Amino acid sequence: MLSSGSVSAKSRLLLAVCGVVGVTLSGCSDPAESSAETKNSVSYAWPVSQTPNWISPISSAGHTSTINASLNQVLWTPLIEFNTSGGSMGWDKEASLAKSVEFSPDGRVATITLKDMSWSDGVPVTSRDVEFWLNLIKANKENWANYVDGRMPDIIKKFEAVNSSTFKLTFDDVYNQDWLKSNQLSFIQPIPQHAWDKKSDSGAVGNYDRTESGAKKVFEYIQSEAKDMASYDTNPLWKTTNGPYKIDTFTSSGKVVLAKNKKYDGTDAAHIETVKLLPFTSVEAEQNALRSGELDYGYITASAMAQKETFEASGYKITPKPGWSITYMPYNFNNPKMGDVFSQLYVRQAIQHSIDQKSISEVIWQGTAEPGYGPIPQGSDSPYLSEVQKNNPYPYSIDKAKKLLTSHGWKMGSDGVAVCSSVGTGENECGEGIEKGTRLEIKLLAQSGSTETDNMMNEIRSSLSKAGIKLDVKSAPVNSVLSQTPRCKPSQKQCDWQLSFFGTSGSWYFPPYPTGERIFGTDGPSNFGHYSNPKADRLMQKAVSSKDSSAMVKYSALLAKDLPVVWMPNPVYQVSATREGLKGTAADVDEIYPQRWHWETQK
Prior knowledge:
With 603 residues, the protein is α+β, with helices and mostly antiparallel strands. The protein has three domains: 1-75 and 242-323 and 573-603, 3-Layer(aba) Sandwich (D-Maltodextrin-Binding Protein, domain 2); 98-229, Dipeptide-binding Protein, domain 1, CATH 3.90.76.10; 326-571, Roll (Dipeptide-binding Protein, domain 3). The chain has a four-stranded mixed β-sheet with strand order 1-8-7-6, with no helix packed on it. A four-stranded antiparallel β-sheet has the order 2-3-5-4, with helices on one face.
């Protein structure tokens, strides 16, 4: 998912920094209040400039950050939760509603049994709640952010409730079972049919979801309620949950207070009574909060690694946390001005050759980032990683970048920016759709709030300029970047974006089986730039319908060479700073599991 990417992510400070740093928390506190001996709460820092903006467990376009996912999964227990922390992949059964998944001998039917759990109002969670979710998604799949044509829910040919706790799903074809569990069934989110199957606040609950028209109205009602952030902590709709926590308070600035759900009866109960999830507008503000002892769980930047011993002396454990992720900048191939330019592989090759990933990783990220050369996560062993991707087909070389441009009809202008001088589709011409006089000037909207990202963009802007490519960088919070760089048609106003970056903590976090149909498939919902390669589509399709990993390896090699995006250094999700005595944080990477946090004296 986007960090996000993300790719997904806080109280005014005390003492000298209180009221100065411009954060959005409610007030100052005594550092002593953060000690394990004096409280049963935890203060956690959201990633800089990343705040939740969507509460509905049914995802919506523009609201797919891991911050929203983290909040959702502690309120509503997912059917199947996968935890990919540190590159370790597996089904997290404790955090899942499903007790077992069994496939028929031919692989076409999955029989799923639910744990014995209840909603917060005492009503049992049943197969009907799964059917409710599935009916809503089927009738509204075009408005569901995770929809890919031919995938969930299209692959479900039949739903059958065996009894209140067991159901069967019949698929339209035979698929790779690892892919099914981690990439498809993990999307299923049981929701309370007995409380939500209605068309308005005052409307009676019925079985509206069992007709297409009814399902559309119920879906519209639920999603419209989710647009009202001001009511997240008061709306009765969001009070019916089955997760280990419930929302106590929610502010539009991003401060969220979670309270332990006393009625939770699952296998992943919370230990901490109160969890404060706190927003920050800058890294400096967050790190000042650590220095002042205001946070129990935060993070430091790569550049602050030189001060690691100082933070440790203040009572924090510093831990780099890599994610199962990739980082990239998508091109907008539908942009009316630069889309035809981006469509030329030699242009993308020139841009890739101009990015010194190794130096950026070592110097700017202080060794907390790993160069990335393709669509499969690197930095840990993987049977899906090709030698082509591993060996970097486009190493840093300004000379190669310039030669690619000049040999295809571009000449350096008086200001150092390359200009198309030879129009046409020949080998020594600019390419189809590129007009004479077109300048290689690219606009980039990049995530704000990170010194490393700012420095990285300055470095890339400088190196691109040496190749004759001008990069104009504008920064915005990650939610704004995601909303301003959507999938679009050339004729639409919102298609004016050209290049996008939302990867300060990684752009995309994968489930265990790292297929890329959602981000690189022709109709992928998160394929923001509309990259399309029929060969890649075929390989992705083969990867999900076969146990043979060769299709994934070929896919890795193809996209490493074809450059659907600008491949970028992949930073660790975060370098966490955890107060000594706070345990149970090992699984927290792209998503958090606050129900597992506990003070050493609690267990």
